[in-house]
Amino acid sequence: MNKKFVLGIYDDEDVLLTAIENIRAAGTKIYDVFSPYPVHGIDDVLGIKRSRLPIVAFFCGLFGTSFALWMQIWMLGFDWPMIIGGKPHISLPAFIPVTFELTVLCAAFGMVITFFIVSKLKPSLRVNVFDKRSTDDKFVMAIEVKEGVTDLSALNNLLRTNGAIEVNEKEVVK
Amino acid sequence: MTEERLIISRKTNNKFFLMIAIGVVLLIAGIIFMAAGGVADHGEGHGEAAAAGHEAASWTKRLFVNLWLNNVYFTGIAIVGLFFVAVQYVAYAGWSVLIKRIPEALSYYLPIGAGVMLFVFFLGGHDIFHWTHDYLYNQYLEDGVTPNPQYDPIIAGKAGYLNTPFFLIRMVIFFALWILFFNWLRRNSINEDINGGTSYYHKSIRISAMFLVVFGISSSIAAWDWVLSIDTHWFSTMFAWYVFASWFVSGLAATTLTVIILKQNGYLKMVNANHLHDLGKFVFAFSIFWTYVWFSQFMLIWYANIPEESIYFIERLSGNNGKYTWIFFFNLLINFAFPFLVLMTRDAKRQMIMLKIVTIAILIGHWFDFYLMMMPGTMRGDAGLGFIEIGTALIFLGVFLITFTKGLTKASLVPVNHPFLEESVHHHV
């Protein structure tokens, strides 16, 4: 299915931020904004909610801690008890470094893998680039056109009055 | 950018004086209790001690150790203020400009710290430091033939470094350098407010870089001298880091707490959740760093289990009739587990209430950390946690707050001509 987008091209960060605010205030839904570099405060004006990835990291870390402790206590305490340095079989201080490392490893890997899955990043991923200049020196704001609902000329006006230097239309194959 | 002057009302100042007055009353009450019978503060005390063949510690000893403990703790916070500002300069940091006057003012305690430290060492040096006793160093008694039963070959072997003149020279040099660098950096900072321009900034970076080298060496040696040498036989290569970590996280907590209190009283209008977030991250990170150093020191000694090393932890864990056991674990709980779990989320670091609770806990916790470093080596089983401890701590806190707030009022809270001020105002994380 083809989707049609209106692209507003901006060349100034501050103009872009106010434009996003005004356009959202006018009731238009913004599909996405593409920028050559991270813009401070753009998440807030676009109304993007904070990522829940830290929660994943916490539970992955918790898993790492419990797994490491369980592994060492079971292996060295029950499955194959060994006397090392005259210490008791289960001696917590000796387990702490491994526990720490596994906590960090599980939290980091868990977070990265979850991020890949949630954002559908996989080798076969194809990404539509709306306007190649968004990788160079322009900001591109994409607004989805709904057949029969969106008033194209009004949208064009809205974008231009809010500082867009160009307004283009683009059709993308989904 | 507008100036912001802090005004400390007479009422607030009176509160600080009241704090000192309460401290003095508690201290005197504690001393009277102890001199009169000694049972009030340290439970099992006398009978047992006499039976074990040694005299229970006198109240003067306890007082001197307490003075030393609090002075090392507050001097640490004071010098960390300067250290923090220096790090910010050298790192070309922009975010911290709005709050930099607060750590800067912490260092106003340094001259008092120097005075108290010299004073306590002259009066109570023998009570705090075992190595200051001359008899330890003579292999033979006065006749030159009879072996001296009190001769301590280990301590005598350290005499080249651990002797009173050299100890005093080091102490005086460190304080002189710290105060010199503090005045230098502070004068630059205030002149920048008046005259503007970037030349002060560049000069401050050079001063800071020099200070960091000085601080790296002097803070380590100070930790060995003022804290480690209490347990003269014992040694640990991690110790300088350990004391530094404790000082640094306390200094950061003091800075953060002051920022919050000033903000709640209507000052620091341009400081927002983003600055608090960064301060919170500092507190969070360095309480973990402290734990890391603590554990590194503990685990190596625990694993090797060499008597001359592990005695230090035995004294604190099970020795001295288990007197320090609860503090040993409380130390880890309040300085690691509590800040780690509470400050983990982003929201907790951006809310004043959470940060306030955690920084107060850390400040109390690291006082206990120093208590645990100093008491077992000096007071042994006779250490207490009563009127004398609370009274002394209150007196020092009051004096510290008076000098600190007076320092804060001496200049605008906002460094109006700092070249990175604008960046700090728009700081966003």
Helix and strand arrangement:
The complex is a heterodimer of chains A (174) and B (429).
Chain A: E1 2-10, H1 13-25, E2 32-34, H2 42-46, H3 53-79, H4 92-118, E3 139-145, H5 152-161, E4 166-173
Antiparallel strand pairs in A: 1-3, 1-4, 2-3
Helix pairs in contact in A: 3-4
Chain B: H1 10-36, H2 45-51, H3 59-90, H4 101-106, H5 110-128, H6 153-157, H7 164-195, H8 199-226, H9 239-264, H10 273-304, H11 307-317, H12 319-322, H13 325-342, H14 346-350, H15 352-378, H16 387-409, H17 421-425
Helix pairs in contact in B: 1-16, 3-5, 3-8, 3-9, 3-15, 3-16, 5-7, 7-8, 8-9, 9-10, 9-15, 10-13, 10-15, 13-15
Transmembrane segments (chain A): 55-74, 94-118
InterPro entries (chain A): ActD
Pfam family, one (chain A): ActD
Q: What's the short story on this structure?
A:
The complex is a heterodimer of chains A (174) and B (429). With 174 residues, chain A is α+β, with helices and mostly antiparallel strands.
Tags for this entry?
heterodimer; A: 174 residues; alpha+beta; Alpha-Beta Plaits; four-stranded antiparallel sheet; 5 helices; 4 strands; 16% strand; B: 429 residues; mainly alpha; 17 helices; globular
Description:
- The complex is a heterodimer of chains A (174) and B (429).
- Chain A contains 5 helices and 4 strands; from the N terminus they run βαβαααβαβ.
- In chain A, helix 3 (53-79) runs antiparallel to helix 4 (92-118).
- Chain A has helices at residues 13-25, 42-46, 53-79, 92-118, 152-161, and strands at 2-10, 32-34, 139-145, 166-173.
- Chain A has 2 domains: 2-50 and 135-173, Histidine kinase CheA-like, P2 response regulator-binding domain (Alpha-Beta Plaits, 2-Layer Sandwich); 53-118, no CATH class.
- The N and C termini of chain A lie close together (6 Å).
- Chain A has a 4-stranded antiparallel sheet with strand order 2-3-1-4.
- Chain A has 174 residues and is α+β, with helices and mostly antiparallel strands.
- Chain B is an all-alpha fold.
- Chain B folds into 2 domains: 15-38 and 57-231 and 380-412, no CATH class; 234-378.
- Chain B has helices spanning 10-36, 45-51, 59-90, 101-106, 110-128, 153-157, 164-195, 199-226, 239-264, 273-304, 307-317, 319-322, 325-342, 346-350, 352-378, 387-409, 421-425.
- The longest helix of chain B is centred in the first third of the chain and has 32 residues, at 59-90.
- Chain B is globular, with a radius of gyration of 23 Å.
- The two termini of chain B are 22 Å apart.
- Classes of the chains: A alpha+beta (174), B mainly alpha (429).
- The interface between A and B is small, with 12 and 10 residues.
